[in-house]
Amino acid sequence: MMALRLAIRGNLNFSCLITRPVVFRMNQLNRFKHFDNRESPISKQKKQEGSILRTMANGIAIGVAIGIGYYYFTDFEKKLPGSIVNTPTTVSKIQKLPEIKITREVHYHNEEKADFILFQYPTCPFCCKVRAFLDYFKISYNIVEVDPMLKQQISWSSYKKVPILLVKLGDGYIPLTDSTMIISAMTTYLKDPSVNIQDIANYYPSVSFVDTDGKRKSEIMNKYFIMNHEESIKDKQLKFDDERKWRKWSDEVLVHSLSPNAYRSLPEAIDSFKWFSVVGQWEKNFPLWETILMIYGGAFMMWIISKKLKKKYKLKDDVRQSLYDDCNIWMNEVKKKGETFMGGKKPNLADLAVYGILSSIEGCMAFEDACKKTDINIWYSNMKAAIN
Ligand SMILES: N[C@@H](CCC(=O)N[C@@H](CS)C(=O)NCC(=O)O)C(=O)O
Q1: Which domains does the chain have, with CATH numbers?
Q2: Element (H, E) at 96
Q3: Residue with the nearest Cα to atom 14 of ligand 1?
Q4: What is the model's pTM?
């Protein structure tokens, strides 16, 4: 009731603001009314012209005001925290392969050409995760190295992040985006390759929304779910729930401790980038000036960004400690299973996700320190052996 009263009072105040200038104007007109009788024809004509102009100006002003009001009203509605901004999108086929330079081919069988093309940065944790998955399941693929500063190699795509996996379908390609979605969609596909990959991709629609900070974000629905497999038996369901939980943890917790550790100081950031340039064979794949720009420009940018990430994800003052904590959390879970891997005797998708993400900093000082201070290396070496 109180709220209603306040709302009514608010409206009344608002209408007062609109009517007040009109009343004031009418008073002014009344005050000058008696001069009208003594007007000359010229001034009368001028007055008429003036009134036409005024009417037009008022019309335009009202039109603009309505337009602005409408724009703000609709946009304001879109900007409400928690509101969904657009309808889900579907994945569409690319008819012609974009002009790209394949930088590396990974073949597990004798096929002439791989049906998968991975656009990546070699040490991006999300790309490493996809590679860990493809390598474990012995899926052949080609790699296109993307320049992280200029990104010319993905100029054809409206999605501006890596990894992107192009999957050959008939005479075209289906672009899969987001590492977790790629892995879920590909797992679904491996279970039944007769299903069209485009249909599978459409099980993972992208939805935009405005988060509680008022920032526009997009999220891929169902991305932790494998489609089409029966989860009716309770045991199985629990197993998959656990797998999903730890895949999510790797995306939402573990991954955030990496950058502040790999780029902890400027020299450490430069060292990390130099290692990335070796792994990605930047000197072979890019002109020298671009390699230098990527190493020093990238290191400087990431060093600055990492300070913000440290705050955003509430890492400990000594960021190494946060990395050690995450390694310990993971190892405790694996030990609880009493097997070599989280998935038992064989790695599951959570093992592959955690391994992939950690492998992105394998040559950095941060990883060396984590191996010394925690027993992550036991599980990590087993994973490496299982994948290779
Ligand atoms: N949720 C996405 C995140 C992908 C992502 O953030 N990739 C980073 C590279 S590690 C990226 O491309 N960032 C944009 C940029 O480099 O400009 C996934 O899992 O694939």
Answers
A1: 104-225 (3.40.30.10), 252-387 (1.20.1050.10)
A2: none
A3: 161
A4: 0.78
